[in-house]
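thread: overnight batch results

M.L. [08:02]
morning all. the overnight job finished for the chain we discussed friday. pasting input first so we're all looking at the same thing
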Amino acid sequence: MKILQFDSKSIFGIDGSGNQIKKWYDRSHLIKLNSKYREASKEVDAYRLGTAMGLYCAKYSEITVLYRGAERKACVSESYMLPDEVEITAFEILEEFNIDIPQNMSAVQFIDLLVNAVVSYTGFDIEVVYTWVYDMLVFDYIIGNDDRHLTNFEVLVTTQKGTCRFAPYFDHGAGFFRTDASLSLVEYKRLFYKFKSKPFSTNPDKNIGDYARAKVSFLRMLNTVGGVEGIKTLGMNQGHLLTVLRQISRLSEKLNIVLS
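M.L. [08:03]
and the structure it wrote out:
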C-alpha cells in the first residue's frame, strides 16, 4: 500500500493509553499509527507470533503514513468481517442472558460462566469454546497484554442466517508491557508485578484460569511455533522478543513444564 496522507479531521482517537490514532481507509482497512506506546509496532509483532503459534489473529502489516506533514510508522489491517456480519462481544453475550458477575467470583468460575453463555448463544461445542478462551488467555500472558476487556473478543453473527463464527484475536497494541525496550531483569520484574491483566482477574497468574487447560493450550502453541528457537526466527523487535521469552519461562514454571 502506498504512503497515505491522513486528513486530521477524519482521525479518531488520541495519543495515549487505550486510544490509538486510527481511521478506516476505503471502509475496508483499519490504519493505526504509532503513538505514545508504539501500538502499531506491537500489533504487527503480536500478529507474527500468534499466527506462528497457530492462532487465528487479525492480520496487521507495517506501513508508513503522512500525518501532519511528517512520515509516521503505522500498521494496516483489512476488515475481517463479511458484509452481512455483525460483532457480538463477550460482554454483550453476558448481557443477553442477564448475567451479573459477583465480585468474589474466581477467575476459573468466571471463565466457566462465560464459556457456557457463549455455548448457549452460538450452539458451539463447549470444548471448542474453552479452547478459544484459553488460547487467548495464554497468548495474552505470553505477550504481556493488559487490554483484554470483555469487549475485546467477540463472535461474528450473520444477519440473514444467524450463523456464528469466532472473530480473530485482535487489539494487541497494549502488549509487551507497553514498551519496545530490551528490559533489564530488574525492570522486567518491576513491570510484571505492576501488570494488571484482564478480563477474569487482575492477577495474571489467576487470569489464565484452570492450569490444566492453560497447559494444553500453551504446549500446543509452543509446539506449533517450533519452541523458543522457532520464536527467535520470526523477526520480532528485540525488546518484544526478550519479553516473550521471559514470559514463556515464567509460565512454564507456573504450569510445571520443563522447556527443552
